[in-house]
Design a protein that fits this description.
Blueprint lengths: L1 H5 L5 E5 L3 H10 L6 E5 L8 H20 L22 H14 L13 H8 L9 E5 L4 E4 H11 L6 H12 L7 H4 L14 H6 L14 H16 L13
Parallel strand pairs: 1-2
Antiparallel strand pairs: 3-4
Length: about 250
């Protein structure tokens, strides 16, 4: 629908009520927050032909109305602020306030985030020779521009070190080359797909990745956990990937 709108063809989607939040998140992520849709009660997949016809006929008037009326633009909810200031009784209190704010805006993964201060991001960028504004890829599934600096910001929030950054950058770039649609279909599916990051070569040993028990917690898997977390935060904050909204795995 979005591609049709982009070439000047009015389009209205039929969306199952279960996927309304998915439609909101997806339209925002793909740069068209005012995309129109009509809600139908049932999912079309595996629905009996008679029910497909009846629920479509019931929606015709709403479809025509949406196609012929002016668009009421939805609030995109995208924060364009580059720098934020948090104050508290001490640094710890300020960090807690930052985390509360980030969680409310769904910018985190539910765990405590490290503050991505200018100094911390600059230090993270020392782990690569790439310029901060270098565009690594369009990050799936929402295809936000993944610059080196954006990746570094998410790596800082995950608790990564500068030497981890090249692996996170490579992972982001690799994901964008997965499948013919850059991994979009895998990350926006109702099937239980999930990315698995495999690191090959001497850099794994260099940064301390544990090749023996990668899925376990604890000291031995600290780097595995941090790198995976940074990768996941990039999906959320650069690629606009929101499990339970855009990704409806069952």
């Amino acid at each position: 629908m979005i591609e049709l709108e982009k070439v000047g063809r009015p389009a209205v989607a039929l969306v199952s009520g279960r996927f309304e939040e998915d439609a909101v998140a997806s339209s925002r992520a793909f740069g068209m927050p005012d995309l129109q849709w009509v809600i139908v009660p049932r999912i079309y997949r595996n629905l009996e032909p008679e029910l497909c016809i009846s629920q479509t006929e019931d929606a015709i008037d709403d479809l025509v109305g949406s196609l012929t009326s002016s668009i009421s633009e939805r609030n995109s909810g995208i924060d364009t602020v580059n720098t934020r200031v948090y104050e508290g009784e001490d640094r710890h209190d300020a960090i807690l306030k930052m985390n509360e704010d980030f969680m409310l805006e769904d910018l985190g993964d539910g765990l405590l985030l490290h503050p991505p201060t200018r100094e911390a991001v600059d230090q993270m960028l020392s782990g690569t020779c790439l310029p901060a504004d270098h565009v690594v890829c369009d990050m799936p599934p929402g295809f936000g521009l993944a610059t080196v600096e954006k990746i570094a910001i998410n790596a800082v929030m995950a608790g990564a070190k500068p030497e981890h950054l090249p692996v996170v950058i490579a992972a982001v770039k690799g994901m964008s080359k997965l499948h013919k649609d850059g991994g979009k279909s895998l990350l926006m599916s109702t099937s239980p797909e999930a990315p698995l990051l495999v690191v090959n070569g001497p850099i794994g040993e260099k940064i301390g990745l544990n090749p023996k028990s990668a899925l376990g917690p604890g000291r031995d898997n600290q780097v595995n956990t941090i790198v995976g977390r940074a990768f996941a935060l990039c999906f959320r904050n650069i690629g606009y990937w929101y499990p339970g909204l855009m990704d409806m795995d069952t």
